[in-house]
Amino acid sequence: AHKDIQMSDGPLEDFEIYYTRYGLVQVSNDMRKGILTELRGRDLSLTDLSRALGKAQSTLSVHLDRMTAEGLIASYEDSKDSRKKMYTIDSVRFAYSKAPDDRSMDMLMSSLSKIAEDPAKTRDAMLRFILLGLDGVGLMIEPISRILGNIHAMALGGALSGPTVEETVSNARRYYADMGVGELNIYALNPLTVVLKDDMALTEDSARSFGGYAAGFLTKVLEDATGRSYDMLSGETFGEDRNYFKFVLEPSRERSELGLEREEGAVPEDLAVLEHHGHAAVGRPSVAVARGRRP
Asked: DSSP class of residue 265?
């Protein structure tokens, strides 16, 4: 049986939660977390893993067999050497533990007390309250936030797709503004550099989860419009109230050559950010414009 997550008076146990074909699996063993970390980069053989982790192959084999049975990973024969077995991740990381943050609970109560008597404002801020609450008890959900954002865009069925990357991003920006979950500001289109701004004060980790939803949403919108797979290259929070999240999206390396044209020019007016940001993390808007053709 999988070990249940239990609350205690002290810090939460260091764990990760993965979704597998058999359901949710908690991973708290350091060896298994290390294996999953290595496999997130690329598929590896037992020899590769032994070298990367500095552990005996016999020790790793026990963990690999258990992880395969639990649905965390899968294996296949190397196409170049049938005697070699390759391991690959066969699950999705949903969340992981972190140090509980009392500031999150204080911020939640402070913000809620100001609007609790207004049902409409309370409804509009509910997502932020949930993220602050989870951050307060020590659960980081940025991974599943990105997945949910992706699912949200998937449900739109390509409705925001335009003939170019530029128009698609513009459509997504307007749609996101209408949802009332932050303002997407575009600072460059190649690579796509976005700053999500919100009016509510957040903590570092709750802001990352809040921004992760936007990144997952925009990733899927772009994939539907261009037929390319996109990766988030980086993400960071900034601002005194941690209410800014900057992230960069770019076509996945293996597919980045499909239908991509570059053109030098200013960021389009409807995507430009009018307010001035003095923080160095924002940087200045790039003049590189990427236009994408549908395959």
From this structure: -
For the chain, give the mean pLDDT.
82
At residue 13, the pLDDT reads 65
In whole angstroms, give the CA distance from residue 30 to residue 63.
11
Token reading at 132 = 């602050």
Residue 31's closest CA among 11, 61, 4, 3? Answer: 61
**Hey, which residues does 231 pair with through a beta bridge?**
250
What six digits make up the tokens of 23?
């359901």
The pTM (predicted TM-score) of the whole model is: 0.76
Distance CA 131, CA 104 (A): 9
Instruction: Pull the structure tokens for residue 159.
Output: 């409705």
Q: Which residues contact 37 (CB under 8 A, 6 or more apart)?
A: none
Q: What is the pLDDT of residues 162-195, one digit of tens each?
A: 999 999 999 999 999 999 899 999 998 888 999 9
Domains of the chain with bracketed CATH: 16-94 (1.10.10.10), 144-292 (3.90.1520)
Alpha helices in the chain (DSSP H): 30-41, 46-53, 57-70, 102-115, 119-124, 126-137, 142-155, 165-179, 204-226
